[in-house]
Amino acid sequence: MHTTRGIPKSGRGSHSLGFLIVFPVLVTSGLLMACSDRVPAPDISGIEAGIEIMRFDADLFELDIDSIPEQIADLEDRYGDFFDIYFNLIIRIGNPASPAFLGHLRRFLTDFDIYRVKTGVDEVFPDLAWLEEDLERAFRYFMYYFPGYRVPDIYTYISGFNQSVVTSEGIIGIGLDKYLGTGHVFYSQLQLPVYQRQIMHPGKVVSDCMMAWAMMEFEFDDSEDNLLSHIIHHGKMLYFLDAVLPGQHDTLKTGFTEQQLQWCRRNENLMWTYLVENKLLFSADVRTISRFVNPAPFTREFTSESPGRAALWLGWQIVSSYMNRNRNVTLKELMEDTDYQRILNQARYRP
Fold first, then answer.
1. Cβ atoms within 10 A of the Cβ of 28, count?
2. What is the pTM of this model?
3. What is the pLDDT of residues 292-301, one digit of tens each?
4. CB 211 within 8 A of CB 202
């Protein structure tokens, strides 16, 4: 499982889709109050984002099985591009023009296991007013820093445990079945690794949505595709979360447990020294990059106490240092800057 960035689509029916697979975090109520102050929260009292979550999952399962041909056109009209994305790219049964579509859809809607998933989603998410409010606040901050950018339409869906968050141009889709709670019976039945299950709870939805949105809007520039570039790029994404989610605990942004965050703080210098002395920062080897940037229980090159993707935490510190030393740089300028080497140089990073 991996993360790919979203790429804007061009035209109805031709979509490039970003998938966000989220990372491990263990949160307790006491930790939720702690947060960083890397980016002071600006005044957003005069900004409205107009976020409204559209429950595609509910409307889909309210279809009358005996009247699907008559009702599917109305569902398509209401949901437009997301209708295409869901059926073609998420559950992959094609579109209504396909002769096999209706049969596939009937089987999906009447499948016993999918029905159990739908019941579980309804129990955990009977109402999404809280999520709508949190996303509204996050996108008000987004609009403050990025005036003129479009705020997305937001949909919820059931994916059959395939994707957590998907993005396309002007769209965020949330797979509610990936956020039922860390101890949910479905996840243990699927035998998901603990480090994956620990992030599958409702509190993770907002940071995952904003991360996925940033990854689509501000794509990775692979002209210098080395480990340093990935580290700095992801550091920018985490700094973006600092700005649009002020007050949120770092565990939710990084996907690390509090113990793993403490390990990173204690071993920041050792991690950086290891990468430098082993000449890994400028490595373009795909396997080397993968070991440091892909989700994992821990980072093998460090210790079993380290989180997977610990090196990306270093990127966050580098970008924070860069912004502290260059206070004239706006968040928009940072996110659009793909000169990763220059960011490192001007950060004057000294762990």
1. 10
2. 0.88
3. 999 999 999 9
4. no
